[in-house]
Specification:
The protein has 13 helices and 20 strands. It is of the alpha/beta class and about 400 residues long.
């Protein structure tokens, strides 16, 4: 039995001083004040649910380029990503969602068996994209690109249904789609699936009990995603009043992945200028609309495990969100709200909930920067105690 004593954020509110009792893999009691059972191990600090990154990739690459993401071998990706899993856990993340990679489904299985250390992984398996779309490495011949890719390419409603089934066959627990591409020559956004294709993907996914996460840049992709009935909007650049109101009405989660845009992305000057304009708008107008319409915002970094976007620094999304939301709202976005968006019973300090809990040196309800890895003292994953980076690296 373990007694955690200190200031508590329970996923909804602050308890100035309380005690959390962990027995086995569950939280057995939460009480106000200090109430320590006999023979319990006592740990003191700021207590909160484990953090969630609702959008990342276990690419296991050194260079952060489209070609590298596709050419990396599964062996290299698996070895590097296994190390990244441990980094994430010791940094305070107990739940992550991988939205397209070659190895995440297996990481999920191994973590659940207890064979590797890491957070729970909700993996999409291969993502779904159109031929010639966002993650199609067009420098390669088509047959080679399709063989090496971490995406299934599909180009009609029935092909899209089959692609969903292929992802489910891999072991997917969510379906990732590209409603658009990203930035391309000439200052335009590459388009992705049509509305009919997206509707087929959503219908087939929901028939099988899986949520759909949609990569959406620009109004057209936002509208087709909303009308098709996706569950989460990823990135969401180009939000306006009409789309924000529709997202709110339908209860779709909005995952702005601000941390991904902190980092300059290598590209040609024409695309760079267009990208910078949209990113600037994302950090101003998009986020202003998202907060003014009180959208259900969750933390997601789009980190991939590269030198530029390293796993272990995923707390940066919470820091960036604190520009637009108060600290309690940010803590919700990275725990309870993110867990709800992923459809997982997690993100709360409540009796009967899984003992996925972190102990922080500091007070992130006052200073979000206190969520950085060097402040994570202990991480409990299903009741098992791990040293956080504050101790593990110290």
């Amino acid at each position: 039995m373990i007694a955690l004593v200190g200031k508590i954020f329970d996923g909804e509110k602050i308890i100035e001083k309380g005690t959390v009792i962990i027995e086995g893999d569950k939280i057995s009691r939460v009480v106000e004040g200090e109430e320590i059972p006999p023979n319990a191990e006592v740990i003191r600090g700021f207590i909160m649910p484990g953090m969630v990154d609702a959008h990342l990739h276990f690419f296991g690459v050194e260079e952060d380029t489209l070609l590298s993401w596709n050419l990396v071998s599964e062996i290299d990706a698996a070895i590097r990503s296994t190390k990244d899993m441990e980094k994430l856990l010791r940094s305070g993340f107990t739940l992550v969602r991988d939205l397209g990679s070659k190895v995440a489904v297996n990481l999920d299985k191994l973590q659940r068996k207890g064979e590797i250390i890491g957070p729970t992984v909700i993996a999409s398996g291969y993502s779904l994209a159109v031929t010639g779309g966002n993650d199609d490495p067009k420098d390669l011949p088509l047959d080679m690109a399709q063989r090496l890719s971490y995406s299934f390419y599909c180009d009609s409603p029935w092909e899209c249904r089959r692609a969903v089934r292929l992802a489910i066959r891999q072991g997917a627990r969510v379906i990732k789609v590209y409603a658009s591409g990203a930035f391309s020559q000439g200052g335009v956004i590459l388009q992705g699936f049509t509305l009919d294709e997206l509707k087929a993907i959503v219908d087939e996914s929901h028939r099988n009990g899986l949520k759909v996460a949609s990569h959406a840049y620009g109004k057209e992709a936002l509208m087709t995603s909303i009308l098709a009935g996706v569950d989460t909007i990823e990135h969401g650049l180009g939000l306006d009043d009409e789309t924000a109101a529709m997202i709110k009405e339908k209860g779709i989660c909005y995952i702005p992945t601000l941390a991904a845009y902190e980092i300059p992305f290598p590209t040609n000057p024409e695309v760079k200028q267009f990208r910078e304009e949209l990113v600037k708008r994302h950090f101003t107008d998009d986020m202003r609309l998202a907060t003014s319409y009180n959208l259900k915002i969750a933390t997601g970094t789009d980190y991939v495990g590269s030198k530029e976007r390293p796993h272990g620094q995923n707390y940066r999304e919470a820091v960036l969100l604190s520009r637009y939301m108060n600290n309690i709202e940010v803590l919700k976005a990275t725990t309870s709200v993110a867990s709800e968006c992923l459809g997982v019973k997690s993100g709360y300090i409540k009796e009967g909930y899984p003992a996925d809990v972190i102990i922080v040196n500091g007070d992130p309800s006052r200073n979000i920067e206190d969520l950085k890895p060097n402040n994570i003292l202990y991480v409990f994953k299903n009741g098992r105690k791990y040293k956080g980076y504050a101790i593990y690296e110290g």
